[in-house]
Write a structure and sequence with these properties.
Blueprint (H helix, E strand, L loop, with lengths): L1 E6 L5 H11 L2 E6 L2 E6 L1 H10 L5 E10 L3 H10 L12 E8 L6 H20 L12 E8 L2 E7 L21 H10 L8 E3 L6 H10 L21 H13 L9 E5 L2 H14 L5 E5 L12 E5 L7 H21 L3 E7 L2 H5 L7 E7 L2 E9 L2
Helix pairs in contact: 2-7, 3-4, 5-6
The protein binds S-adenosylmethionine (SAM).
Length: about 375
């Protein structure tokens, strides 16, 4: 059993923990912006391929003292880096956290990189080149008080960058957050799904990937663990085959996205094509005021703009009121969810919430509001 650590967005720890359990992780412990768990190498690959709500999976390799920069340097140099990195591979170090003497993450990352490459020169006479954009091996260093946890980042780039989205509308949701909202709303593929403010389509797209049992990792062709010394190509190929064979060819219930802006809708359509689900999701151009329910019941999830300036907030109040009116007048039998970062605006909906779930959209404290529409 190996120890792993999934990094997640603030507020999504419990949702990610549940997802990891479904994927077969053991000893799951949600922490602040992360979830630690154990499992074998196959689980590590499986999580990278299938997880919808997490950013990265780290594999801790050492914990060293880091009272100051000299001690950190000396301790990092003692780690047998040749077990993990060939000097032929490119390298980058990413640092988070800090303490009294190590305040600047960029500078701390440089110290660690220098310690690793100096060790390589002493042992092999040559060293890894640094590639901060697209390294073969990515080291994560997390400083907390006087301890530095060094991990290998198995994902490389964040798993929220699914690889299907080139086109983005205004204020798109992160794919990981969209997937988490579907979980929080208990979306089930048996129910019709509608996002009436769909923008570039993140929510309908993530709903369709879930409904068709499409592993989000299938769109990514590179994970950092593929450059590791212990990469097991045949296990990975087995998982890919299993994922491809377990996709469903048809939706059980419709998935619809609508928006009044044709430009963002065409982006949504491009994204759907890249996911291979363009013929499955229905995207429609419609202003909220003219929207009719596509079926007798279903689930709505949407994120209207929150507005930052005062004038904007006043204008947006009308949109929130319209949402409430349309829900009440036309969507009887449906369950609706609104994600918003503005309490004042949420009051304009004018309907009684049956649940309020705290969630962060990046740094913005938001609430997912649930309305049962009888
Ligand atoms: C914050 S964005 C949604 C982003 C989307 N979830 C995504 O991930 O791309 C809000 C969307 O609401 C749409 N919108 C605003 N007012 C509308 C209205 N009255 N009718 C229909 N769409 C509207 C905007 O065009 C915009 O695309």
């Amino acid at each position: 059993m190996n120890q792993y650590y999934a990094t997640v967005a603030k507020g999504l720890e419990a949702t990610a923990a549940k997802e990891l359990e479904t994927l077969g992780a053991k000893n799951i412990r949600p922490e602040f912006t992360g979830v630690s768990f154990t499992g074998d190498q196959k689980l590590l690959y499986r999580v990278n391929l299938w997880a919808r709500t997490i950013f990265r999976v780290l594999v801790p390799i050492a914990e060293v003292r880091c009272v100051n920069r000299e001690i950190l340097y000396k301790e990092v140099k003692k780690i047998p880096w040749q077990d993990y990195i060939s000097p032929k591979k490119t390298l980058a170090v990413h640092c988070t956290g800090g303490n009294e003497k190590l305040k600047h993450t960029h500078y701390t990352a440089l110290q660690i990189k220098d310690a690793i490459t100096e060790q390589q020169i002493q042992k092999f006479r040559y060293r890894s080149n640094i590639d901060t954009k697209n390294p073969d091996i990515l080291i994560n260093a997390h400083i907390q008080k006087n301890t530095c946890i060094l991990s290998l980042d198995s994902s490389g780039s964040s798993l929220h960058q699914r690889g299907y989205r080139l086109a983005m509308g205004f204020a798109p949701l992160k794919e990981t957050l969209a997937a988490a909202l579907l979980e929080m709303a208990e979306y089930s593929p048996d129910l019709p799904f509608l996002d009436p403010l769909c923008g570039s389509g993140t929510l309908p797209l993530e709903a369709s990937l879930k409904a068709l049992n499409i592993a989000p990792g299938l769109f990514k062709n590179k994970f950092a663990f593929m450059n590791w010394r212990d990469f097991d190509e045949s296990t990975w190929q087995d998982l890919l085959l299993e994922a491809k064979n377990s996709q469903l060819s048809e939706l059980k219930a419709m998935i619809v996205g609508s928006d009044r802006d044709s430009e963002v809708l065409s982006q949504a359509h491009t994204n759907a094509k890249r996911c291979g689900v363009a013929d499955k999701i229905k995207f429609m151009k419609a202003d909220l005021s003219e929207l009719e329910p596509p079926s007798a019941q279903g689930i709505i999830i949407c994120n209207p703009p929150y507005g930052e300036r005062l004038g904007e907030v006043e204008e947006l109040g009308k949109l929130y009121k319209l949402l409430g009116d349309i829900f009440k007048q036309r969507f009887t039998g449906w369950t609706a969810f609104i994600l918003t970062g503005n309490k004042q605006l949420s009051k304009q909906v004018g309907l009684r919430t049956s649940r309020r779930i705290a969630v962060y959209n990046g740094p913005i404290a938001c609430t997912l509001l649930k309305y049962e529409l009888y």
